[in-house]
Structures are given as C-alpha cells and as structure tokens.
Design a protein that fits this description.
2 helices, 8 strands, 2,3-Dihydroxybiphenyl 1,2-Dioxygenase, domain 1, 121 residues, four-stranded mixed β-sheet, 2 domains, methylmalonyl-CoA epimerase activity
C-alpha cells in the first residue's frame, strides 16, 4: 500500500496555494472545479502530495491541535528567515531534541500546524 495524499479543507484556495508554494516549496500539479463553488488543487514536491479543497458554500476549516504536517527543509536558518520575512509567526521552536534534527512550527492560513524540519546527517 502506498500513501497517496493528505486533504485539507481551506478557507481561501489562492491564499493556501500561495502559502504552500512560497513557504513550503510545493508546486501546483492540478487545479480544477469539482462542481458549483468547489475548487480543488493538488500540490506536490515529488514525494509529498497534498489536496486543498475550497467549498464556496462552506469555507469553515476545523483543524485540531493534535495533527501537524512536517516538511523537510535544507536549512532551518533560511526557513526561519523566510517565515519572518513573510510575517508568519513561529508557533513554537526552534527545537533540537537530538544532534541530528532541529525544527520549528508555524501555522498555515487555516490553522494547520506545519513543522519545518532540518535533518542534519
């Protein structure tokens, strides 16, 4: 079995696409209308795929505190500089629980916790 993607209902599709392309580095690979007022976008980085759904009728997004999406970055320092430049507050961290990994958390425009991680081999 292979994991295909993770789905998130978003309030504003364009705002969410901008976050995931500019901050996380994903690319839009497919975007389409799925019925009256419903838009879907798939974003991909080669290994990671997420699906964003925006329903014009129901723009509520209910993201819990017990889930996060983690994305590996080449440099945590550069990622920190980027989020500060974009005005995105750091939710927690940076943390380094061992000599091989360090990370911090931010939130996407819908409240989803995003963990940016540097693996230091």
């Amino acid at each position: 079995m292979k994991f295909c993607w993770s789905t998130l209902r978003v309030k504003d599709l364009e705002e969410s696409i901008k976050f995931y392309t500019d901050i996380v580095g994903l690319e839009v690979v497919n975007k389409f209308s799925a019925g009256p007022g419903v838009e879907i976008a798939f974003l991909d980085s080669g290994e990671t795929k997420i699906e964003l759904i925006c329903d014009g009728e129901n723009r509520d997004s209910n993201v819990g505190n017990d889930i996060s999406w983690g994305f590996e970055v080449g440099s945590l320092d550069k990622a920190l500089a980027l989020v500060k430049e974009k005005g995105i507050p750091v939710d927690s961290g940076p943390l380094q629980p061992n000599p091989h990994v360090k990370f911090f958390f931010i939130k996407d425009p819908n409240g989803m916790k995003i963990q940016l991680v540097e693996n230091m081999a």
